Amino acid sequence: MPRSFYRAPVRRFVDDARLDVLHAELEKAAATAHSEAGAAEITSWRNSLSALATVLDTPELTASEIFIELAMPIGPQRCDALLTGRNAFGEATAVLIELKQWGWARRGPYPEHVVVSGKGGDHARPHPGAQLRGYVTHMRHFHTAFHADSPDQVQLEGVAWLHNMEPGPSLDLLRSAPDYPLLDAYPIFGKDDAPKLAAYLRSRLLPGPSADVADRVETAPTAPSHKLLDLVVQTITHQHEWNLLDTQLTVYWAIRHAVQVAKHSGVPRVIIVRGGPGTGKSVLAIQLLAEAARQHWVVVHATGSKAFQTVLRGRTLKQAGSLLESSFGKRKKKDMPVADIFTTFVEVARAGVAHPGEIDLMVADEAHRLWEHRRIKYPNGMVKWLTDAPMVREVISASKVSAFFLDDNQSVRAGEIGRSQLIEDHAKAMGIEVERFELDEQFRCAGSDSYLRWVEGLFDLRPGNDLAWRQDREYTLRLAATPKEMSDRLSMETSAGRRCRIVAGYCWKWSKPDPLTGEQPHDLIDARFGGWSAPWIEKTGQGLAPELNQYYLWATDESKRGQVGSIYSVQGFEFDYVGVIWGEDLVRRNGKWVFQPDKNKDGAFKKEIRNSKGSDAVQMLLNVYRVLLTRGMKGTFLTVLDDETRAYVEERLAFQYQRQRA
User: Fold this and answer.
1) CA–CA separation, 473 vs 486, rounded Å?
2) Residue 113 carries which DSSP code?
3) I need a surface site. Which of 81, 95, 346, 495 has the fewest CB within 10 A?
4) Model confidence over 502-515: pLDDT tens digits?
């Protein structure tokens, strides 16, 4: 449900702005939402909203309703202001107003971008029209009040008011249609355009009460968010484009621009994009792959997650061959630097040695899973190192532009060394320019930054105990006494048409299928499970076609939802609801996290910890459970087996938590 820091009739808004009390009310609302307002934001509110009040102080608009800092669904963005009313046809109408304090702007380094001054210097920012397009499109997709098929659809438009920008070159640039062809749909008003802005708003919001329209905006439910796997084929075949917002849009254009420059100059580039769970790294990677194919660039998508790579291959079997051929311009795989568009870091590293620079763009998803050197891992767990050269350097050498998407807190094996600083150090040692970006908008977990902060606080990855997500009911986390309770609740969600899976810490053996029946044994069994038991995902063996692989079947086939996934099968994926069984390998003791090796059944993990220098088993497991707890789009159901650890989780859930039976 959308929420705002402030909602009122325009008349009251104007009075509050004149009395200079509006910023205090907004500051209080921000604190309630655990979104502390800084001095710069408070100053912005005082300046921008006071200016807006002068525009709205007209009899025709006083009965309209206004929202300030209205939260958009499935994401952290907030609209500066949104006015509601009805137009001349009697249709419910809303106008989203983006307020900018910019005094100047110059042409940006990428399409749809400008350069403006900000904290720490000058920065490239999306053109106001591009930002408005993203916001309006996002609201139309995910806010049901604005859906085209809604019985009383609220018509939504967007405008930008740069109330400090004088007439002159900067405003002329922003209004330059050849450079920024968005002005018809998303007009821009400058400092001297207050009368024109008022007239624009009056033409769309006729005099009359609008509380009913505002009520719909405030209470209409959020539409289900898209899942990457559901739309990957449509994306790479150009039938779907993800709506990129703010920093996502900047990263997209920066990488696209870097490829164009590198192809022309022959000078390689490295771009590092960091972001936590659910910040859209994989969405961006797939969108860039699709754009590269459209441009006929030589492109590969590499990932350190075998499960993710397998499912992407399985989803795109019909398209991958023609995509590979059109991208590389060759008919035979043996003539190509890699055998598949969706490939591994090992294959890209090999291409970096044999075919340096032949790939135009390498999109490295889950790049935190890079290894120190190229290797082969055999089914019996044996590892053979293929070279002494740093794998990062070989991967970089393969492409004109290497775009690394990673989360520095998501490595889950001792040998995974992919860190943003390490990649940057190697690139600079190779004489390659590096550009870095940070994705901090949350689009998984119901778009709740608060929930992610709570998870990271739980694992001592950040200070504090953010519980705004519970107060606002942004996301569901329920503790279940047993896996049976958890499974029963997930079954109810599945019956309602939602996609659900169960995952667990690697605290039970993983047997081979029964040789007579071929069935996977129920390895997850315990007297504390309430009579419930389940198998791990199938061990289908190596070398099978992607659509027959265990990872593909588990992630896509609903008949497999009774199987339990591990960190190796779930990393990179998302489901509506996820059940998590927290084993006893990671427990809380005397205020600290402790690794109990005897409770962990991941032999390869423990062997790597023993053989590696400086690897921290506790840190690896903190990363594991952080990933498991952030796979749900709508909610997580959690069973914690260790009593002291469960008590700690309950304590972190604050206010005399009464266990809700799942």
Assistant:
1) 19
2) E
3) 495
4) 999 999 999 988 88
